[in-house]
Amino acid sequence: MDQIIENANPWLIALALAGGMLVCWCLGWWRGRCQPAESGDDPGTKFIDASMALLGLLLAFTFAMTLGWHNERRLAVVAESNAIGDFYTCASLLQEPHRCRLQQVIREYAQQELDTPQESMFQPDETAATQRRRHMYARMTELVDEAIKAGTPIALSLTNTLNGVTSNSASRLNAYQGQLPWNIVLLLFLSSIVPSFLIGEKQGASRKVHFSGSFTFILLVTLVIFVTLDVNQPRGGLIRVSQDSLERAVQSMAK
What we know:
The chain is mainly alpha-helical. The protein has one domain. It is built from 9 helices and no strands. The chain has helices at 2-7, 10-33, 45-91, 98-115, 125-149, 155-175, 182-206, 211-231, 244-252. α3 (45-91) runs antiparallel to α4 (98-115) and α3 (45-91) packs antiparallel against α7. The protein is rod-shaped. It starts with a helix and ends with a helix.
């Protein structure tokens, strides 16, 4: 179910939700019209207020979660870019021929990471990118091992920066695994539909219809949920993590 939500189009889900809220509002209005006209205060309005408060909490909770994951992905890209830059700087302190050979591989690795951003990778592209990344790790490890055996005095720094590249790359990949569980998404949908029904029922029972307020409520809730789902889909959404830090790292390593 989580895979279905991740691959679904946020626009289609948002439109389906808007249609469902509109239909529930119409059903509530029709049910309210079938009841005797209300006079005076109705204690049923408390249920509308409670459902609206619950909807607001869920919208805030889910939006904050997805925004936090988006920020985590952004920081992961920056951390990986810095790790690559540190490794390249450390490699520049090596003696020839180890310096040029290792720097060349680091440039190729940075360009590969820039050309295959995690946001655009799906199976089997993700599997192929993982294999290419492992191949680059093996090449860099082999060159570092040769430099250490040659007696370089920066063996510790060289090893630490290589470990920083691999660990930050793993952290970046892991940051793209976080998403809302399907049961929370389902609860969010139900919490959006129920208030629409209750509002429509109240308006039908009072024989007063507020089209502008009702449709504005449906539109705003739909837009918030759309943005939440779009951020929740880092691989297919419109809101993507900037790769500027990686691009600057590649440019700084240009010959």
